[in-house]
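Cross-check.
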Amino acid sequence: MTTKIQGSRLPAITIARSEHARLSNLADMLAERDPHVADQLAAELDRARIVEDAQMAPGVVRIGSIAQFHLNGEALQTAELVLPKDADIASQRVSVLTPVGAALLGLSAGQSIEWMARDGRVRHISVVTVQDRAADAGP
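Predicted model, tokenized:
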């Protein structure tokens, strides 16, 4: 679950309606097998502003987007946000079901978020740029 860090505010996030529905179903299916991850994704989806797919603004991290970001203040990283079946860390394809993937979902360049990891440590991600997914990618 995305746990709010005392004194921090969660940033506003936006998710396309079709993607919200698909990811909600994914979180529901995962609830028994990995409740922590399912809860984290569900919490992000619950707080998201949902917009029609055609109204989705460019530059928002969604499935298929490529984001450049700093994780815990470290060097700039680049990753494509993908569904679990397409995840491949060696190819910089991060699943939306990972803590980093769930944190990136719905953010735009300049936004940051902090969360409490399972190990009790605070994690921080700051998005630098977002390259929109390819025009031929499905929701």
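Confidence is low (pLDDT under 50) at residues 1-7, 135-139. The helical segments are 17-30, 35-47, 99-104. Passed to J.P. for a second look.
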